[in-house]
Amino acid sequence: MNVAIFTDNDFNKVNGVTTTLRAVLEHAPPDIEPRIYTCEDRTVDRPDYLALKAFGVGIPYYGEMKMYAPPFRRFLRRAAADKIALIHLTTPGPVGLAAMYVAARLGIRIVGSFHTDLAEYTRVLSGSIRLGALMQGYMRWPYGKCDRILSPLKRRSTP
After folding, report:
1. 29 assigned to some structural domain
2. What pTM was estimated for this model as a whole?
3. CA 20 to 30 Å from 133, out of 2, 15, 82, 157?
4. Is residue 62 part of a domain?
5. Residue 132 within a domain
6. Spacing of C-alpha 59 from chain mean position
7. Which residues constitute the domain of residue 68?
């Protein structure tokens, strides 16, 4: 089964998401063919990793990370060409929105994994309870589209 793993994290970073995804690529069962779909400042096209070149800007309060404006239609064409059977959303950012778009257009299931409590991050980094609550509400949208959500975190509340 071909699985597209959509993430806002490119593999130029070292964090929990990229560490987990590298392990998924290395330890996937033989009947699962995972491929990372993401964006970077340049295109990278390998059998297990597709980064499409896109415009990126630094994330407020988290300057070492960039958010990219994903090329939705290019992701759709690539997923169709790769004969993707399942989409795995790992982040609710712009590339996560591209995952939702591709899943809806191709009529395939989407599962999610919850790696970082972005609502709490937002609250702490911005110092704003309201921004944290806004992020909490926003995260319900992409994760609410998932058939299943996997999480290493102890459940405190639904994203």
Report:
1. yes
2. 0.84
3. 15
4. yes
5. no
6. 15
7. 2-115
Digit-coded pLDDT (tens) for 5-49: 999 988 887 777 888 899 999 999 999 999 999 999 999 999 999
Instruction: Compute the C-alpha angle 76/83/99, nearest 5°.
Output: 35
- The pair of structure tokens assigned to 83 is 């004969």
Question: Backbone dihedral region of 149: left (phi > 0), alpha (psi from -120 to 50 degrees) or beta?
Answer: beta
- The angle at the Cα of 103, spanning 147 to 107, to the nearest 5 degrees, equals 90
Q: What is the DSSP letter of 155?
A: P
- Residues 6 or more apart whose CB falls under 8 angstroms from that of 42 comprise 51, 53
123 is written with which tokens? 């609250």
How many Cβ atoms are within 10 Å of 69's Cβ, its own excluded? 13
- 9: helix, coil or strand? coil
In a domain, 131, yes or no: no
Q: pLDDT tens, 83-126? A: 999 999 988 889 999 999 999 999 999 999 887 777 787 788 78
Tell me the CB-side half-sphere exposure of residue 76, using CA atoms within 13 A.
13
CATH of the domain at 16: 3.40.50.2000
DSSP code string of 70-88: --HHHHHHHHHHTT--EEE
CB 87 within 8 A of CB 103: yes
Q: How many domains does the chain have?
A: 1
Q: Residue 149, Cβ neighbours under 10 Å: how many?
A: 15
